[in-house]
Amino acid sequence: MMVEREDLGLSLSLSFSDSSRPSQLGASPFGFNLYKPSHRDCETFASLDRISEADARPSLRGIDVNRPPPSAADCEEQEEAGVSSPNSTISSVSGKRGEREMVSGGEDNEAERDCSRGGSDEEDGENSRKKLRLSKDQSAVLEESFREHNTLNPKQKLALAKQLGLRPRQVEVWFQNRRARTKLKQTEIDCEFLKRCCENLTEENRRLQKEVQELRALKLSPQFYMHMPPPTTLTVCPNCERVGAAAPPLPSAGGGGRPAHHREPVPMIPWAARPGPVSHGALRPRT
DNA sequence: AAAACTGACCTGATTACCTCA
DNA sequence: ACTGAGGTAATCAGGTCAGTT
């Protein structure tokens, strides 16, 4: 069974078989990579938008996030200042706090503190969490970006934020939500898949039980021996030298036309498939 | 009115870096 | 100079809230 990507409704870019992208979410058993990047992986050069939530709140009360925030441009400028710092090692250095601070130092942080949090619930009743609605264009750009990388490094975040006229924090939140919801959808799909596997196996089991019963009945009848294959059709397995009748391959079973005793169990679920064929030498003693 | 969607937020975990004894 | 402990900051996943469609 293969689930169409379009089925997800989120127009996800689930890479079922594409393992070529390193920056996917971490590995899902179904091939959807759910990659959690370590800080070492990403370019953390000026993560200006991470601030104490508590600190951020008070200064933001009264800001309507649905309005293109005056802060957005301001933030970008401030962050750009960080980005364009001659001392920064923006694109090549990974997550060294020294560098982060170099570009995001004191005042910028304060500024970001003011502009990165849309927050402001409680207390101020009239400004309880207004919701921004992203435009189609904004969503499209974000989707496109998500398809390419489902995590953002700070540089990409800033660039996107600037391009879309959003705060970096908004871009960050969008990506976080997107990852979470993508994963949720994938889980639902996986669940559905497992359900169908279970049904198929139950059916197969029923069928095999029936077959066993029939064979037992046949064996008890004297005519059974009349149907025995002549000895010449018995084959010797070249690997283990066991004697077995050449069985026709079962369409649904793994192992194709191999002798029955060499057939691998059918993997119930895709990720259960072994990386390679199990051979007699698979359990070689360590040297 | 109810349900689905979605932007925003909170919390806890993880990791890297810094400071200091 | 080296080292381990504790602190700080950034980022993430998972869960939730609440406004919008």
From TrEMBL:
Key words of the record: Coiled coil, DNA-binding, Homeobox, Nucleus, Transcription, Transcription regulation
SMART domains according to UniProt: HALZ, HOX
Span of the signal peptide: none
DNA-binding residues (ranges): 127-186
Domain Homeobox per the UniProt entry, residue ranges: 125-185
Start-end of Low complexity biased regions: 84-94
Pfam families: HALZ, HD-ZIP_N, Homeodomain
Top-level taxon: Eukaryota
GO CC field: nucleus
Entry's localization field: Nucleus
Any one GO molecular-function label of the UniProt entry: sequence-specific DNA binding
Coiled coil feature spans: 184-221
Annotated stretches, region: Disordered: 54-137, 249-287
Similarity section: Belongs to the HD-ZIP homeobox family. Class II subfamily.
Name this polypeptide is given: Homeobox domain-containing protein
Native source organism of the sequence: Eucalyptus grandis (Flooded gum)
